[in-house]
Design brief:
The complex is a heterodimer of chains A (477) and B (95). Chain A is of the alpha+beta class and 477 residues long. Chain A has 15 helices and 17 strands. Chain A is 39% helix and 18% strand. In chain A, strands 1, 2, 6, 7, 8, 11, 12, 13, 14 and 15 form a 10-stranded mixed β-sheet that branches. A 3-stranded antiparallel β-sheet of chain A has the order 5-4-16, with no helix packed on it. A two-stranded antiparallel ribbon of chain A has the order 3-17. The termini of chain A are far apart. The relative contact order of chain A is 0.10. Chain B is mostly helical and 95 residues long. Chain B has a domain of 38 residues. The chains are: A alpha+beta (477), B mainly alpha (95).
């Protein structure tokens, strides 16, 4: 093996908190930032005798995810108990799915999906430091508000090959889930969490090397950096002729270091068995029809529509479609003025987004109607490109209506030969030497003449029109 | 059928502290249970649907409607120790 080129083999497990009103198996409202332990009941506290009942809306969201990922949906799906002891798990087991998950197989972008199943989230553990009560030992404080939150776990096939590909694919997944409306998909707040299984193998082989699991990375940047660091760590081990140990790892983004999480290693024997408190979930035609009717246009379909129907370039189509908010804004601009050429609208949306950076266009001071109006004014030569960009700067800074900004500040394009001709004539007259050179066919000085006209019109003339007039007045065309 | 090492492994996973003099008896009982399951496995079950649940219930889903949660002092009442409105517990090993 040593000496040959190695390639990474990466599979992902993504946990998505579903945006239901209540928890997976009880009627407690989902808690985000509420005071600790104010969203609990006997079911999510795991008190003896309490019985779980599955949330129909969580099943519905699971079906929507399965349809969006082109999965096979199980006609009958069952819940299992996944047994392990941890203070964030009051029952001593997590209710999850095992051999009959809600969704099997599927594909998103270039990546095949292995399965999607539903389960309950664990509670939140906060480190408390040394405690007086528990002598000398470290202690933790458990907040059960999060315990029982519905999760969809999406598992990919081990088909990803680089940290960059993982980052790009996760962005597509996040946009897809956000478009479905099934989750807030906020990595910082933990509603989208990603684990990566990573191994290396010689290029051109099918064998799978020993994999490690990189846990709970909570931003796209950390995921890419963590995977890159783990790939390099494994490469160094293999190239030194040693073997990779199968283990669960934690990436610390601050130090860029990778450490082993030994505590849960022994607990990998989960002894799954069917959850006796929950009957199988039978997926009815009605449930499937409702899920299908709830599907919005998804990023991949939107990308196709932009390319095929609106003739946007594939690059622009992907940039918009994979960022749902931007695509929504673009659609709103097109809807505000249906006579606007989508290419022109796309150019102005891109121009606007370039000024906004990370801020979303819909959160900016520039309304879709204002941008549509500005674009239309350029098309009808009421304002030229340069003037329109000045207007856009002002819209970004303070909002407002393009037509009145143009009027207030005298940014109207100086248009039409009638208005421009005398200004061009004056510019030629003021520069007899240059005019002579132009007349003899040396076109280099034309820029000076155009510049002079622009100066006289305070940038409001159209450069092409000025050039045409110069040629015409000198009898060159 | 189930040996001592396997019994101790399963007991550790289940956080059961088995006493030395319980080991043989417990191993025997577990073996009897496994033997019963093995006997079922020998039956000809061709054409019989796998059973995931003993009841004949389905469609027992719950509408996504919020129900009141417990008051915090009620929720915390059984806690062995309380700090910062939470259940104070020993930290998991190695964390």
């Amino acid at each position: 093996m040593a000496g040959g080129d190695l390639e990474p083999v990466i599979g992902l497990e993504i946990h998505v908190q579903l945006r239901t009103a209540t928890k997976m198996f009880c009627g407690c409202a989902l808690g985000f930032g509420e005071p600790p332990n104010t969203r609990t009941c006997p079911v999510c506290l795991g008190l003896p005798g309490a019985l779980p009942v599955a949330n129909a809306e969580a099943i519905h969201y699971g079906l929507m995810i399965g349809m969006a990922l082109d999965s096979e949906l199980a006609p009958v799906s069952t819940f299992h108990r996944k047994n392990y002891f941890y203070p964030d798990l009051p029952k001593g087991y997590q209710i999850s799915q095992f051999d009959l998950p809600l969704c099997s197989g599927g594909k998103l972008g270039e990546v095949n999906i292995h399965r999607v199943h539903l389960e309950e989230d664990a509670a939140k553990l906060n480190h408390a430091g040394a405690s007086g009560r528990i002598e000398g030992a470290d202690s933790s404080i458990v907040d059960f508000n999060r315990g029982g939150t519905p999760l969809a776990e999406i598992v990919t096939e081990p088909e990803l090959r680089s940290a960059e590909q993982v980052g790009e694919w996760l962005r597509l997944l996040r946009t897809t889930l956000r478009t479905l409306g099934v989750s807030d998909v906020n990595m910082e707040e933990g509603s989208l969490r990603c684990d990566a299984n990573i191994s290396l193998r010689p290029v051109g082989t099918d064998q799978l090397g020993t994999k490690t699991e990189l846990k709970n990375m909570n931003s796209f940047r950390f995921i890419e950096r963590g995977i890159r660091a783990e790939v390099e760590r494994q490469r160094a081990i293999i190239e030194a002729g040693e073997t990779v140990t199968q283990e669960t790892l934690h990436f610390d983004p601050k130090s860029e270091s990778i450490t082993s999480l030994r505590s849960k290693e022994e607990a990998h024997d989960y002894r799954y068995f069917p959850e006796p408190d929950l009957p199988p979930v039978v997926i009815t035609e009605e449930m499937l029809a409702r899920a299908a009717a709830s599907l919005p246009e998804l990023p991949a379909a939107r990308e196709q529509r932009y390319i095929e129907t609106l003739s946007l370039s594939p690059e622009t189509a992907r940039v918009f479609a994979w960022r749902a908010e931007l695509a929504d804004y673009f659609d709103a601009v097109c809807a505000a003025d249906q006579s606007l050429d989508p290419h022109v609208a796309a150019n102005w949306v891109t121009e606007l987004q370039g000024r906004l950076g990370d801020e979303e266009a819909e959160d900016s001071k520039v309304t879709a109607a204002a941008l549509a109006q500005l674009a239309a004014m350029v098309v009808s030569s009421q304002v030229n490109q340069g003037g329109a960009k000045q207007v856009l700067d002002q819209l970004v800074a303070a909002g407002g209506e393009p037509a009145s900004i143009v009027a207030d500040q005298g940014l109207e394009a100086v248009g039409g030969a009638d208005e421009l001709a005398p200004i061009v004539a004056a510019a030629l007259e003021a520069n007899p030497e240059l005019t002579e050179r132009l007349r003899s066919g040396d076109m280099k000085p034309i820029g000076v003449i155009v510049g002079e006209v622009m100066k006289q019109t305070r940038g409001r003339a159209d450069g092409k029109e000025v050039t045409a007039l110069v040629r015409k007045q000198l009898g060159l065309s | 059928m189930i040996d001592r090492d396997e019994l101790l492994h399963v007991a550790r996973l289940a956080r059961l502290a088995l006493h030395e003099d319980e080991l043989d008896a417990t191993a025997g009982e577990l073996s009897t249970i496994l033997g019963h399951v093995a006997a079922i496995e020998e039956l000809d079950l061709e054409g019989v649907e796998p059973t995931a649940h003993i009841g004949d219930v389905s469609d027992s889903l719950r509408a996504d409607h919020v129900r009141p949660s417990l008051a915090r002092d009620v929720a915390l009442a059984p806690a062995p120790a309380i700090r910062d409105d939470g259940f104070l517990v020993p930290s998991p090993q190695g964390e």
